[in-house]
Each structure stands twice: as structure tokens, then as C-alpha cells.
Amino acid sequence: MTERSDHVADIQAEWARERPDLDVSPQGVIGRLHRLAARLTDELVTVYSRHGLTEGEFDVLAALRRAGAPFERAPGELARFTMVTTGAMTKRVNRLDEVGLVTRRASEVDGRGKVVALTPAGKELIDAAFTEHMANEHRLVGALDPAERACLEQILADWLSRLDGP
Predict the structure, then answer these.
(1) First CA to last CA across the chain, in angstroms?
(2) If pLDDT is split at 50, 70 and 90, which confidence band does 1 have?
(3) DSSP secondary structure code for residue 105 in this structure
(4) In terms of DSSP bridges, do strands 102-106 and 72-73 run parallel, antiparallel, or are they unpaired?
(5) What is the largest CA-CA distance in the chain?
(6) How many CB atoms lie within 10 A of CB 123?
């Protein structure tokens, strides 16, 4: 492997000079992943905004679409699928409801519960946004050859599994 010279390498070199007593090698992985995640998020959010959506709103619509017909989930289930608090979910659902992309109704199973469902306009929007989103993701991972992609996917899946635990 060749010697890397980038922003993260520069930071590591400065820390190595200032704190030679510490092993700063983890910054090579963590720092680059952090910078890559920020760059990828910027690229993904650009697509969402073209469809009038925030990242969180895209996540809600996608979670509803993935549920299959009739494209609905309970708010708590949506919060789990999108990894946000129920308060944040309420804010997202309120906005999507206001613009006619989702509806809320009482649950038929639990009279106290609510169900959030895609409207036909919401389904049409998420289908268009998701199609463009996947083209964008293909473009982004296209910088890697198939073997690199497979290897990276496996490494990341294994690492997440170890951090998440059983």
C-alpha cells in the first residue's frame, strides 16, 4: 500500500509530533470514515432536496414504502426504523401530513394507537426520489471496483456487528 497524504494524515502527523507517547493510528480509520460519511451525506441530501425532502422526511417515506401495501406503520415503529426519538418522528410526520404525503388515523388493532400511511402522492414522490437515490448511490460506489465494494461491505458489516453486540 502506498503512503497516504491527506487531511487525516496531516492531523496524525501533527499529533505524532506533539504526542509521540500516543498511538494515533485509529485516526486513520475513524477520521477517514468520518470525513467520508460527511461527504456521502452531502451527496445524498442533494437528491432528497431536489424532491423537496429533508433526509429525515426521506427516511420516513422510505420506511413506509418498504412496509409494502398498504404502506403504513405505527409512529413508534417508524421511529425504530429511522433511529430517531418519537418526538423527532412526530415533527417529521406533522410536516409530511401538512403537505399531503402521509395521513394519520386511529389503529384498528389498538384504539389508542395511531397509524401513519403514505398517500398516493407520497408513494409517487418516494418512488421517484428512491429511484434517483439509488442511481446516486450507484454513482458514489462506482468509484470502487466490485471486489473492493464487496470487501468494504463485509468489513463494515462485521465491524458494526461487533460494536452492536448480540
Answers:
(1) 34
(2) very low
(3) E
(4) unpaired
(5) 65
(6) 18
Q: Which CATH architecture has domain 54-135?
A: Orthogonal Bundle (1.10)
- DSSP one-letter string for 110-160: -TT-EEEEE-HHHHHHHHHHHHHHHHHHHHHHTTS-HHHHHHHHHHHHHHH
- Could you tell me the residue ranges of all domains in the chain? 1-51, 54-135
Flag whether pLDDT at 111 surpasses 70. Answer: no
78: Cβ–Cβ under 8 A, 6 or more apart, which residues? Answer: 60, 63, 64, 89, 93, 116
With bands split at pLDDT 50, 70 and 90, how would you rate the model's confidence at 104? very high
pTM, two decimal places:
0.85
Question: Which one-letter amino acid corresponds to residue 156?
Answer: L
